[in-house]
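Follow-up to my post from last week.
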Amino acid sequence: MIKRRNFIKGSVLGAISTTTPIISRASGLFEINKRSSRKPIAVATWDNRKATRAAVDVILKGGSALDAVEAGARVPEADPEDTSVGYGGLPDRDGIVTLDACIMDESGKAGSVTFLQHIKHPISVARKVLEETPHVMISGKGALEFALSQGFEKENLLTDKAKKTWEEWMKNNDYRPVNHDTIGILAIDDKGKMCGACSTSGMAFKMHGRVGDSPVIGAGMYVDNEVGGACATGQGELVLETLGSFLVVELMRQGLTPEEACKKAVDRIIKKYPELKEGGAQVGYAALSIEGEVGGFSIDKGYSIAVSDKGQDRLIVPDHYLG
Ligand code: ASP
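User reply:
Got it. Predicted complex:
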């Protein structure tokens, strides 16, 4: 079986010097960011505008930021066409769909589920972990039993489309990172409180039992209401090894803008894996300051961030390191 470090090396396509400059479009993006400081506001990884809109609508109807991020994450979780999250997610190499999710409230309390099977909305189970248990993280069979005890329904999450894709993949059985659209979502409600959520079916065709960054507090998502929040998508191993979302928030605490903080967190990965090349492993961050300033950065091109506030849904394309 291919080992992770070899996999990272093997997943890259071209050559790059370690002195490749980081292009900054900060000035243009900053203008957009400043305009986006109207609360309520929701920000999500990738083009999850339906999710950020759903989140803001919850707040406009009187819901909290926690209700909002849960509602936002439930949008791709329920969508069978979304092969990265919840129902319809691509399975592991054994053909089994396993889900990871976490949620964090404005006081910094968190709930998380990992390696959960058969439950369409892991984010809602994570919220139950936060609200109904003395724990932060529940995994596997225990997470499923807990979900069932809370009234969640056991379902088959492997759609025909996902099964066909897995069967195709099985022909070559070649594990490569597929950039896809895990949702990390942050929202500030009209009281100025920020919460965050993250939900994924993980890397397609991962080893059975593999857990990525998404359900790990501080890796896939982190929120601190003194500063702001951050969330991550992409190859979870790279985010886990740098505790990316926590790092972004701590850098914002030191005075960096969301964009600068995300860029520095990407730099940390590049320093560790200077061999990363275009078209290989991707990581993208999205960050939101408690004042409502939005920023992001990614390793490779192709990443985007959805932003919704009272009046508008838009897509931001942050700068990236490669290409
Ligand atoms: N970060 C997720 C994981 O590693 C996957 C993704 O965002 O594409 O499980």
